[in-house]
Amino acid sequence: MSAPTRGDALRNVVFVILVPGVVGGLIPLLITRYEYREIAPIVAIIAWLFIAEGVGVLIYGVWHFATEGRGTPAPIAPTRHLVVSGPYRFIRNPMYVAVGAVILGQALLFPSVAIFAYLFVYAVLVLVFVKVYEEPTLSRTFGAEYAAYRAEVPGWFPRRPR
Question: Which label site among 6, 44, 45, 107 has the fewest CB atoms less than 10 Å from its CB?
Fold first, then answer.
């Protein structure tokens, strides 16, 4: 794996700001206004762990898209190679799960029915997008390589490394 090209790196930064930044950051902010509510300290700790883990996995996944895949997660600038390293060794959809973890962390920190409803809608839309668009597109683009990867690596719940 080599360093990303300047163009791939820039496209990935723009993607992170525009898509996960809006979906996992701006929209939860607009919903919750980050209004403080009394929560148990352990809940706050768990919430921050979800947020930190989500952000870390997201950055790690995007880095692999730029370095290994030579592209971005965005359909308008897809990778030229199937990405199967980094967090993709354990789960096929780590960035969707990572953004969900960030939203869940915020839902725990700033609890409201609206933010939990948003998390549910996010999960449903992601599942539909993956089934209707992403998996068929990856199958057409990468053929047997994606079929083998899909057979080996679970989609949503990480597996232990072998």
Answer: 6
* pTM of the entire predicted model: 0.90
CB 85 within 8 A of CB 122: no
Q: What is the CATH number of the domain that holds 131?
A: 1.20.120.1630
Nearest to 83 by CA among 12, 160, 10: 12
Number of domains in the chain: 1
Domain-embedded: residue 107: yes
Q: What pLDDT sits at residue 105?
A: 97
CB 115 within 8 A of CB 103: yes
Confidence (pLDDT) at 64: 83
